[in-house]
Amino acid sequence: MIPKKVNGPKEALEGVKDGMNLMLGGFGLCGIPENAIAELVKLGVKDLTCISNNAGVDDFGLGLLLQKRQVKKMISSYVGENDEFERQMLSGELEVELTPQGTLAEKCRAAQAGFPAVYTPAGFGTEVAHGKETRDFGGKMYVLEYAYEADFAFVKAWKGDEAGNLIFKGTARNFNPCMCGAAKITVAEVEELLPAGALDPNEIHIPGIFVQRIFQGEKYEKRIEQRTVRSRS
C-alpha cells in the first residue's frame, strides 16, 4: 500500500507555491478544508487562483486568504457573503470568473474523470458563453467548457483511512467528492482517521485512488454562514 498519511497540514501542503491553481471543497462554510486554509495563510503563498463554489466570509474560510491579499483570481459560483471579496472585485484588485454552479461541478468532474472538456446548455446565449465554442445537439445549443487544471485539491471529509478512502457526512458531500482526483495532488483532511481497511467498503464515497495525502484535522469550528432564529415567545 502506498503510504498516504501525513503528519498534519504542514506536511500535507509541501510543494504549494506562489501562482498555483488550487481547488477547495465545501459549500458556503459547510465541509471546507479549514486546516488546509489556515496553513495556506501561514505559508503566505500569493498570486493564487482558487477554484471554489464560495469565497468564504470576511473572517473565515477563503476570506482569510483574501484578507492577506494571497488570491489573484477567484473562480466561483456564489460569492455574496464576503464584503472584502466585493471590495477587491469592484476595485479591480481581484480577478473574478463567475461560473454557473452546475458547470463548476462538471468542470471539476471532467478533470477527475480525465475528460478534457464537456458540453453544457447552461449559459448559452449569455455572457457566460462569450468567446466559447457552441454546438447544436438534437436542436438544443450547448457551450463547450474545458475541464479545470489545478495543482492541488483540498477537500474535507468526515472519516477516512490511511489508504485515502473517504466518507462525507450530510451536506458536506457537496463539491468535495468531485474535486477529489481533479488536481495533480489531492489532499484530504478528515475528522477521524482510521487504519487502512477499517471502513466498510459499502459506505465509502471516494476511493483512495483519488487521494494522494490524508491527515486528521483538528479544532473544526463548523460555522453557520447565515444563522436565522426566531425570537422566544
From TrEMBL:
Keywords: Transferase
Segments passing through the bilayer: none
Keyword Metal-binding in annotation: no
InterPro entries associated with the record: 3-oxoacid_CoA-transf_A, CoA_trans_fam_I, CoA_transf_BS, NagB/RpiA_transferase-like
GO MF terms, alphabetically ordered: CoA-transferase activity
Domain of life: Bacteria
Family: Belongs to the 3-oxoacid CoA-transferase subunit A family.
Entries under PANTHER family matching the protein: ACETATE COA-TRANSFERASE SUBUNIT ALPHA, KETOACID-COENZYME A TRANSFERASE
NCBIfam families (UniProt xref): pcaI_scoA_fam
Name this protein carries in UniProt: CoA transferase subunit A
Organism of provenance: Muriicola soli
